[in-house]
Structure formats: C-alpha cells, structure tokens
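Sync notes, pocket subgroup
Present: LS, DG
LS reminded everyone that the earlier model was apo-only. Rerun requested with flavin-adenine dinucleotide included. Inputs:
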Amino acid sequence: MNFAFSEEQDEFRELLRRFVEERWPVAETRRLAETDAGFDRAVWKQMADELGLQGLAVSEAHGGQGFGMLELGIALEELGRQLAGGPFLASAVLSNFALSNGATPEEHAEFLPGIAAGTSISAWADAPGLAVDNGRASGRVAWCIDAHNADLLLLTTRGGLIALDPGADGVSIVAAKATDLTRKYAHIELAGAPVRKLGVGLDPDAAAVKTRHQAVIAVAAEQVGAAAHCFDQAVAYVKERLQFGRPVGGFQAVKHRAADAYAVVELARSAAYWSWWVAANDGAELGEAAHVVKSIASEAARTAAYENIHLHGGYGFTWEHDAHLYYRRAAANEVFQGDPVAHRAALAVELGVLVAG
Amino acid sequence: MDFEDTPDEAAFRAEVAGFLDRNLPEGGVRYHDMGTMEEKARRQREWQLILHEHGWSVPTWSAEWGGRALTPAKNVIWRQECDRVGVGEGVLNGGLSMLGPTLIAHGSQEQKERLLEPTARGEILWAQLFSEPGSGSDLASLATRAVRDGDDWIVNGQKVWSSFANVADMGFLLVRTDARKPKHQGITYLLIDLHQPGVEVRPLIEMTGGNHFNEVFFSDARVPVANQVGAEGAGWGIARTTLMYERSSIGSFSVLGHFERLRDLIRERGVPVDAVTADELARLYVRARSLDLLNKRVLTKVSQGQVPGAEGSVMKNEISDVMLAAADIGIRLLGEDALAPGHAYEHDFLFAPSMHLGGGTEEIMKNLVAEQVLGLPREPDAFKGKPFDEVPRS
Ligand SMILES: Cc1cc2nc3c(=O)[nH]c(=O)nc-3n(C[C@H](O)[C@H](O)[C@H](O)COP(=O)(O)OP(=O)(O)OC[C@H]3O[C@@H](n4cnc5c(N)ncnc54)[C@H](O)[C@@H]3O)c2cc1C
C-alpha cells in the first residue's frame, strides 16, 4: 500500500498550480463569465502548447501524453481551485472518456488528435432519451456543458455513442444562462439531425456505464479542488479578521466549524485520490468509487463553499466576493450525472443492502 | 500510488493470517464476548502469551524491545487481519499502546529493561491514571499530590474513570509535585504499583450497566523514585506523548466493520430496508470508507517520515460519529426487538456516547485540530502563568 503521489506527479501539480494562479485565477474566471465562450483562446492554446494539458490523458499515438486518471485528477483538482479550465472538462476529459470507451480505434485516430492538441473542442452529454432512427436524431438535450463552444458533439444514447456536426441541418444549440456562472452550458435541439454512429461492434451499455463513472470521478476531482480552495480562504480570513479585539478564528464556535470542514474536505480528498487510482487501473471497484466519491466530494464542496461565505460575514454574501462562485459551482457539480442521493442509492444496491428498482 | 499489497506485503498478510488461524483460541479473543472483567483479563493474557511466544505481542514496538517495528502499511495489514478474526488488545491496551510506546520514548534504560518485557507479555496489566473528579478536559489542572520521602514519592488524592484499574497491576499516574508553579510545570509522571495498602480501587457502574472504569483512591501510597518517568516536573510533556498514542490507537479502530455488521443484520432478518434507511446505510459506508482511506493517507505520510500530528484527532471524532450512526441505524433495523435486553445493538447503542468522551472529548479534539493543524489561535487561558494553587477549580 502506498498512498503517495510520485515525485513527478507532485512536480506536475506544482507547475500546474503556478500556471493556473498566473493565467487563469478565479478573477479571470469571473471576467470570462461575462463572455459567451467563457474561455480565452490564447490561454487555451498555452494550456495545450506549454503543458500539453488537453492531451494529458490521450495516448501518445494520438498526440497526447499518455497519462491516466491520476494525472488528470491532479489537473482537475488544480483547475477546480480557481474554477478554471473552460471546455477542458467537456473536451479533454468527458469527450475523451466517451470516445475511449465507446469508439473504435479508427475513430480514436480520427477524433482524439484534435482534442489532444486543443485545436478541436468537443462536448459530450448523456442522452438516453434521444430518439435515433436511420441515422437521424430528434429530441432535446438540456444543459450540455460547453456545447455551443464545440466543433464536435458526442452523445451517449441507448444504442451507443453518436457524433454530430454542430453546424449540420437540424441541429440547434442555444447557450443557456445557468446558476453556475463559471461554466458554460447550452441546450441542444435536434430535429432529424444527421448523426454518425460510433463504436459499431462495441458493447454500448458497458461503454456508457464506464463513461458515466469516470465522468463522476473527474467532476469530484474538481469538487475537491474547489472545496480545498474555499476552506483555505476561510481559514486565512478568520486568522486576520478582528472582532472583540481578537481574530474571529480564536472563537471556539468558529474553530469548531473550521475543524468540521477540515474533516470533510480531507475525507473527500482521500476518497478522490483512491477513486483516481481505481479508475487509472480500470479496477473492478469503479462503480463503488464513483458512488462514494460523488457523495463525499459533493458534501465537501458544498460545506466548504458555504463555510467560506459564512465565515466572511456580510462580505462573504456580496456579489463582489468570489465565495458565491464556488457555492454556485458546487451545486452544479452536485447534480451533474446523478446527485449524491442517487449515487448512495446505487451504492446501497451494490453493497447488497437495498433491492434494486 | 498503489492500494494493492506489494509482494512483500502480501507475503506478510499471508503470514499473519496463517499465524492467527493456527493459534486463535476456541471462542476467539473478542473483548465483549469474554465474560466478567476477571475473565477478560485472564483470557486476554493467555492470548498475549501466545502472541509473545511467536513474536507478535508488540509488533509496532522497535526490535530492541521485542517488537517488529512494523511499517505503517504492515501495521494496517496486521490490524486488518486481527479485525477479521475479532482480536483486539482489550484490557492490555494501556500497556501495549500507551505506556509501552511512552516508555520507549521517555523512560530510562533501567525502566525499559525492567518493565517493557513483562508489559509485552501481558504480565503487567496497566491502568491509565490521569483523569480526576476535578480535572478532565483540563487535565493539567490535576490535584493528586506527591511529596518526596527519601527514595519514595508519597501519593495522596483521587483518580477517576480509570479503565481496567480493578484488574490492573500498575498504573501510569500523573501527580502534582509543585503547586507553586503554573499548572503545566508542576506535574510528574509516575508508575505506581496498585497492589499496596495505600491504594483502593472502587469499580463504577457505567450507563451500559457494566463496569470497566473505576475510582482509584491514594492514601499515603508509595512510589519509588526509580518509577518516576522523566524529570520531576516534566510530566506534562510525557503525558502528551501518552495521549497522542492513545488517540492514534482509538483512531485506528476498524470502521468498515460497523457497516458490515449492519449488513449482516439485514441479511439475517430478511426484511428489505426502505429507501431512507438505505441512504443512511450508504452514507455510513461512504464515511467509513473515506475515513479508512484518510487513515491510510496519514500512515503513508508517517512512513515517509512526516509526523502524524493532530490528524489522529480528526480520526477519533470521525470514528465516534460512525459508531454513533451505526448504533442508531442498528436500533431502527431491529424495531421493537430493540427493546429486548441483550439484543444485537444494545451494547453498541449504550456504549456509543462514551466514544466522544474517552481519550479527550469531541470539543477538545476539535480544538486540537483547529490549533495544531489549522493554526488558529489557542484557547484563551485567563490564568496563564499563575501558580496552580491560585487558580479556581471545581
Ligand atoms: C469510557 C471512558 C473511559 C475512560 N478511561 C479513562 C482512563 O482509563 N484513564 C483516564 O485517566 N481517564 C479515562 N477517561 C476519562 C476521559 O479522558 C474524560 O472523561 C474526558 O477527558 C473528559 O473529562 P471530564 O469527564 O472531566 O469532562 P469535562 O472536562 O468536565 O467536560 C464536560 C463537558 O464540557 C466540555 N468541555 C470541557 N472543556 C471544554 C473546552 N475547553 N471547550 C469546549 N468544551 C469543553 C466537554 O467536551 C464535555 O462535553 C475515560 C472516559 C470514558 C468515558
């Protein structure tokens, strides 16, 4: 048993933290929230050219770095601290998972190099309700992350993964304002849109399940980063803010809130690192890891975001303070791919204490 | 990062499992299943001798003192395998996990040579004699006094909540040797023989209806100076070592077992659980699983030479919460059967409230985390620097 990251992984984290703090701090995320795209193409290109970030978990054969979920987890955690990354999650993570699990090697060779280079942006959504017939799809897919920024749309349907050209006839993508200001969302309307079926010959259900579990684990990594940032900010503030002639962090009620938040953040971090390891090793516990981490990381992100607001007093409740951005993101992540209650129900079934259905 | 056993760890696991399976006595060594306190002491000691013969009595101690200096990872494996067959330290916990490591760190060579081996064998059963009627959370305010008489300390006063003192041979005892100094500075750490006329142990009945802790009264009890650990007046620092070991011992209790017991109960009863209870069970599992992982993360840090610090306090509080939640769910799974004396969750339900008290209360643990891990200001002490005998006490 060894629960430590390698030296290279630690160095990668350092490098990335510096990069994100310099080029994409939360202040920048806030500025970008006012734009349609929600990201800066120049920084996106630097992410690709200087760090190879978009290709982090794409194989070298397709122009990526060939790393796995451990490195991807580090990246998501660090981006999560500043709510940064824009379409990184949609393209380099979720679409990458969907293609890796649900497309053939030829299709990998076709789509992954562009994603890895950052020259093509892809968006993915789970769309089990979509009607696909004779190479045409109709229906609505709501709240697809970064769909309006995408050059390629990937949808996981009942029959398997399909690819769409966002510019094709019958495809309409409408950017949607969301409570979460720090990520871009869009609704997709399909009216007989031409689609291409991917992964012919693969087991669509197995691919879909695996993609969902990996997606949950990836988002939980972001949640841990965001939670840790909120927590650090709250603790730093209560050490400085004086009331009654002393730092408010000296009052026991405040100390205990901090100690409680610390516990849940560290529990979530522990579960997250384990879940990355399970995913990196294609472990049999992938489902369990996804359910566990979704539950505890959601709790950590919500708790830390709330405590950050609360411990900043009135200032924490202002528009100007970043605390609400994290609070909003925490809620969005919480309901992404099944809320914690749904995941605990699935876990209870898996553990044999609840009968399915 | 790797959660699998290395080949070396796998071999170690097999060795431990093999040893336990071959040697475990009929009926096991489960604290709660071993009858009266005397029975518990007798059977725990029998088992400890078997462990000792095979070199397993104190696996975490250094090799110099009969241990195996297990790496944190192997210690996890050792405990997992012990949990699997239901073996714990029981009444020997004080000697094996508190006093032993404290002596190794702070005892004199002569004390180590004289006391460690019989402690490892289970021959000396130890009680922790720290808390007093007037000093619990504020342990450093303790008032039991000792004065020098030639080569002896003469002890007068009272301790309370002393686990296993009614079957113990010796106690690790904190006494005040200088009441004119501020409270932390006048404390001395002694090892007292409990089999002497000046010591009286009175069992206390706990809210479970059982007994494991006691009051201990000292009237002119004697402790030879050879049994003073560290310097006169240096007892507080040494006590902190003991408390750190105590908390990390509590913090290493198995947590996932609480979920598994509930699952077994559900299977046994064959009644499907409702969605709300299922959510609580899953919540418990998530917490326990994450806690188990946090423990492993801390152990990895320790194996890389970092100091464990106050993480043990996080763990102790979290384990207490898991036990409270498990008992709570257990009661509700049983329904009206939870009224019947001796039911499956009666003991856990009644015992659970002690978890947030013993070894330092929930509030004190949170203070430690906030101050020592997060660096928040210390609790104000209105009497800081004042001599002990000028501070009000209850
Ligand atoms: C099962 C069990 C076994 C034990 N075994 C032993 C043993 O073997 N040897 C031994 O020496 N002791 C033992 N103890 C004693 C234990 O360490 C004390 O009970 C504990 O430290 C609390 O002290 P107290 O009981 O005096 O409570 P108090 O300190 O009087 O606390 C009363 C309440 O006030 C709260 N409180 C106190 N101070 C503060 C503060 N600064 N901030 C916020 N809240 C505060 C506490 O959290 C608690 O809720 C045992 C206790 C139990 C329950």
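DG: The longest strand of chain A covers residues 136-145.
LS: The pocket of flavin-adenine dinucleotide is lined by residues A 252; B 128-131, 136-137, 161-163, 213, 354, 357-361, 363-364, 379 (CB under 6 Å).
Action: DG to write up.
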